[in-house]
What does this fold into?
Amino acid sequence: MHDFLHTFFDWHEISSVLPTLLTEGLSNTLLIAALAIVLGLVVGMLLAMLLLSTSRWVRLPARIYVDVFRGIPAIVTVSLVGLGLPASGIQPFGRSPLGYAVIAVGMISAAYCAEIFRSGIQSVPEGQMQAGRSLGMSYLRTMRVIIVPQGIRNVLPALTGQFIVDIKESSLVYLLGLSVGQRELYFIAQEHQAATYNSSSLVAAALCYLVITIPLTYFVNWLDRRLRDGPSTQRPLPATAMAEELPTPTATVVTPHDDLSKEAKA
It folds into this structure.
């Protein structure tokens, strides 16, 4: 038991690596994930529009992209982009691996965001498109003003879940050999573990990831319930108030004289 605690929960090792994890690793992890998310959203929306095209030749390139990047393991994509592009002479970011890391994670995210956007847009009733066209809107304007906003609202929980995946997949960029100042959480923890042969630094990195992902997970669950159930637009009235609002029934009293008058008229 002592060896187990020393290997995974050595407070001395955790306290020695935790400041670097919080100051350098956490900020770079969030930076890589945020830029990758923005890239994934933009490219994913463009791919979704192509996937919804009525032309087969327009849909085909987008479908190939989505199928390829969803089918290849993320670690392979990061290696191909981060290591393969510079080796082939394509160096838009020079020798800095940070840009290639963002591109790699963003390309993976775009493939998943494209399918999320496509499903959300297709979930909007067709009557919405017909209503927009009947008002004189063009197809593109109807999509931009009516269809796409509703589609995005339908898939907000799925998009937030994809953001969590992007944060976790940012740990794969350690393969690119980030320099000091660009290292993310896992890279720092892995370096420390290799130097000390103690896994407590990896546990510290895992805790940092949990601090980010657990609140986002609960936010996704809350958002999903919120969108599924809808906000309460009207509070139920108390029983006394409902009784006051009900109309008071009026009784009609029939007297014997009324009966006699009716017989006389007959």
In short: The chain has a mean pLDDT of 83.
